[in-house]
Amino acid sequence: MAASPTVPAPASTPDTPVRRTGWIADLAFAVLTVVLFVAVALATGVHNPWDGPIPLALFLGVLLLVRRRWPMTVLLLSVAAVLTYHLGHFSPAGWIWPVAAAYFTAAATSRVRWVVAVGVAQLVYSAVDARWIIDRNLVR
Question: pTM of the prediction?
Fold first, then answer.
């Protein structure tokens, strides 16, 4: 009697501490982003936080909740949101740090060159915007 080939049982994925606490880290990054962005905006002279900083902070926080699943999408949407915010609001409150977690997560993927390109574009735009601010409103 010939031995029948055995089919290995499907390997179950162990519930590692990283898998269990991943959502806690995402939630912590989201809350930290919301709190810090609003706090810095208020500290830099924003009088009505509901006019821009709070909605942007909430948007960035929600994006961080899905950063592991769609890292490049989260990065691009975060950068676009920050650029849009700075176009419409005169605030020196952060260009890069509100999206630092999105950069970190996207840099851990195979698309590192794209992450660098997005970062350079954001830095160049922030420098151009800073130059415009200096030309028009040195006090700010």
Answer: 0.75
- Counted residue by residue, the chain has a size of 140
Angle between helices 100-107 and 71-88 (to 10 degrees): 150
pLDDT tens for the chain, 140 residues long, are 555 566 565 555 555 555 667 888 889 989 998 999 888 888 887 888 888 888 999 999 999 999 999 999 999 999 999 888 888 776 666 777 788 889 999 999 998 999 999 999 988 888 887 766 666 655 55
Q: For residue 125, what are the CA distances in angstroms to 9, 24, 96, 119, 132? A: 54, 33, 11, 10, 11
Both structure tokens of 127? 């420098």
